[in-house]
Amino acid sequence: MATTQLTAHQLRALEITERVASCFSLIGTTLILVTFASSSKFRKPINRLIFYASWGNTLCNVATMISESGIRAGQGSHLCQFQAFLIQMFVPADALWNLAMAVNVYMTLFKKYNAEQLKALEWRYHAMCYGGPFIIALVLIFVETSSRGKIYGPAVLWCWISTPWDFLRLAVCYAPAWVSIIAAFTIYVMAGRELFKKRKELRFFHEGGRNEKEVMNYKTTHVQITSELAGLRLPIGDIPSPHHQTKEGRSSNTSSSSSEGYEQYTVSIGTSPTISRPHPMSMVSVQRSKSNAAVEANKAAWGYTKVALLFFVSLLVTWVPSSINRVYSLAYPNTITISNEYAAGVVLSLMGFWNSVIYFTTSRAACKDLILRAMGMSQPEELVARRFSTDDTVHSRTQSRTHSRTHSSAERPGDADVLNSTEELGGRSIATAV
Q1: Which residues pair with 267 in a beta bridge?
Q2: C-alpha to C-alpha distance for 386 and 380, rounded to whole angstroms
Q3: Is the separation of the CB atoms in 418 and 89 below 8 Å?
Q4: Cβ distance 238 to 271 under 8 Å?
Q5: Contact criterion met (CB below 8 Å) for 423 and 398
Q6: How far is residue 104's CA from residue 122's CA, in Å, rounded to a whole number?
Q7: Closest to 121 measured CA to CA, from 111, 110, 107
Q8: Of all helices (H) and strands (E), which one includes residue 419?
């Protein structure tokens, strides 16, 4: 329903809705801050970025909790200006942090960055996500004209960029947010294609690249040396022995020899096809390594898919309704659609909640360990080590796999590359990024 002005009852309902949604976000961000500080198992690179974004979400929710109170205090009040400053700084910052998380995935998968290298990028992420929005939000406080007044003022839901300056909402908030969303989505698509391509190669290798029960090694070497010694008188000790073993040969034959004048001699060297049967234990190790590699690749692919889908859904849910409301307000500046205002108020207030969902989804093992410890129970050390030391486990499997392949002479070119890519898929790359 469209109207030119909301009734007191509608404003009150909208205010309650914003504050309830903000409470969910504050609960989620509080849990993020507490768990991140209490246990090192939560401090994965992606969780570090969510932790940094949670500070912005918390301050943004302070502004959404103020809700209509800023508008009632008046455009020139400190409360209204403070609320508008928080909204302008931390709403676009959330989209920028999502882009930073996507960049982490890209740098890990394509540039082979490890956790320390990713950590070295964090100051740049802070400059991009908080530094830029801070400068813009601060400058807008001091801009005022005689025709339009202050930039910060009433904006239906709360104090933000006022209606006379409505075009700035797109320029300094929605445009940067959507550029970040599109860039992040592009990175996730590129990473997904690369990941599933390697996963497909690994599955093909695992399911029947060759029959390794029996490896046929055909080696044929034939060397024939004929020397004409007619008329040449040499002492018998200077002539090579007919049974002289060469470095490569297995047997030698002579065709003729004379004790007086050695007319000629011939050396013929050859080997017949042989069948090499790898040691049974070596074959078991190879099969087990390949099976483990396939399992790790499947886990990595599924883990990546879940995280990427969560990010994509959270971005769409947060920004699509509010963007529709903003475009509608530009097209019909004197009309207010109640449903659009409700949707925009709810989704922008829930940004912190969505980040907490992603955070705890990627940290389920750490959450389980924390709960067990809080209940006075503990997991076996070997299980904990297996869950939280994926990098070392996959690295050792890769080394074992590489060692076992050095004894097989019938390896196809590229097999080792496919298997070693397991470390990227199931171990270092995705585990580092996610």
Answers
A1: 225
A2: 10
A3: no
A4: no
A5: yes
A6: 10
A7: 107
A8: helix 415-422
The count of C-alpha atoms lying within 13 angstroms of the C-alpha of 78, restricted to the half-sphere facing its C-beta, is 0
Model pTM greater than 0.70?
A: no
Please provide the size of the chain in residues. Answer: 434
Between CA 125 and CA 14 the distance in angstroms is: 34
Amino acid at 59: L
Pairing of strands 264-269, 223-228: antiparallel
- The model's pLDDT over 165-190, given as tens digits with 9 standing for 90+, comes to 988 999 999 999 999 999 998 988 88
Q: Which residues pair with 226 in a beta bridge?
A: 266
The Cα 114–Cα 238 span in angstroms is 64
Identify the pLDDT of residue 280: 54
Q: For 336-346, b where at least 16 C-beta lie within 10 A, e where not — what string? A: bbeebbbbbbb
CB 244, CB 252: distance < 8 Å: yes
Query: How many Cβ atoms sit within 10 Å of the Cβ of residue 307?
Result: 20
- Beta-carbon contacts of 402 under 8 Å, excluding residues fewer than 6 positions away, are 416, 419, 420
